Amino acid sequence: MKFKSLFDLMKEYDTEEKCRDYFVKQRWNGNIVCPHCNNEQSSKPIYKTKRGIFRCGHCGKDFSVRTNTFMGDSPIKYQKWLMAIFLLTSHKKGISSLQLAKDIGITQKSAWFIIQRISNIIDTESIKLDGTVEVDETYIGGKETNKHKNKKTLSYDKVRGDKTAVLGMIQRSGKVVLKKFRKINKSCIAPHIEQHISQKAIVNTDESAIYKGALNGRERRIVNHSARQYVFEDDTTNRIECIFSHLKRMINGIHIFLSAKHLQKYANMFCFRMNTRDMDEYTRISALLSDIDNTRLLYKQAIS
Ligand SMILES: [Zn+2]
After folding, report:
1. What domains are there in the chain, each with its CATH number?
2. Would you state the pLDDT for residue 232?
3. What is the Cα–Cα distance from 15 to 105, expressed in whole angstroms?
4. What parts of the chain have a pLDDT lower than 50?
5. Dihedral of the CA atoms 18, 21, 25, 27 (nearest 10)?
6. 43 CA to middle of ligand 1, Å?
7. Residues with CB under 5 A from ligand 1 (ion)
8. Among 73, 181, 236, 288, which residue is least crowded by beta carbons within 10 Å?
């Protein structure tokens, strides 16, 4: 059944077995592959044993649907994983580890680790933007006294302080990609523009000098903020500025103690929610779980 709400989900997946089978279907869709030796059962079968454990007829090793995935060897029940995925991906502004811990009945430390593990599955590397693409940069974090309403009134050196820079790229009526930098300049953004923006795209930016030479010949339309006048009516960076204000609200409202080193993961989760906003809950979660092989994240990796 295609669940639309948390209520539907709880009703449909009311046992551990049903939740486990759901993950088995999402991961392998009927074609179970051994995560130890990649046996696809062309000659050697995979046997199903008790409690969701499989035994490979080729290498002889046991595995479960958790093996080599973001769920790793965690003792957290499948039902809680499924609920956590639902809550994390359906709440527009995200959910804090404190709230997640309360909602599904686990410790805050486990909830934090779950958020890290789920965020880690999200891959924005292959996203390609075309048409009109708005590109802008913003700064996140830092001391309250250092904050300014308009970053453009300050020179880069004054603004950076202990803030983290984020480059944002959004296609009109399309997807968004966010990249974190410790320090933002022409040479560090150029490879990301190359990776994510089609050569034929029209790129709207502000007057910032960092874009000069970073666009590798792509057509640039400069939005003159100070003049508030645009050559063409739609030469704006309004959409990416709107994304930044959503991102900042999410961080300020939910993730109060979000440190700079984890910002990219939270930004990816934010992008995933934005980029799947037209999907229903079932399709969105299926998209998230479509490629979960080798997504295991160790605790020591999560905190580094
Ligand atoms: Zn095997």
Report:
1. 6-123+280-293 (no CATH), 132-258 (3.30.420.10)
2. 59
3. 16
4. 144-159
5. 120
6. 12
7. 34, 36-37, 39, 56, 58-59
8. 73
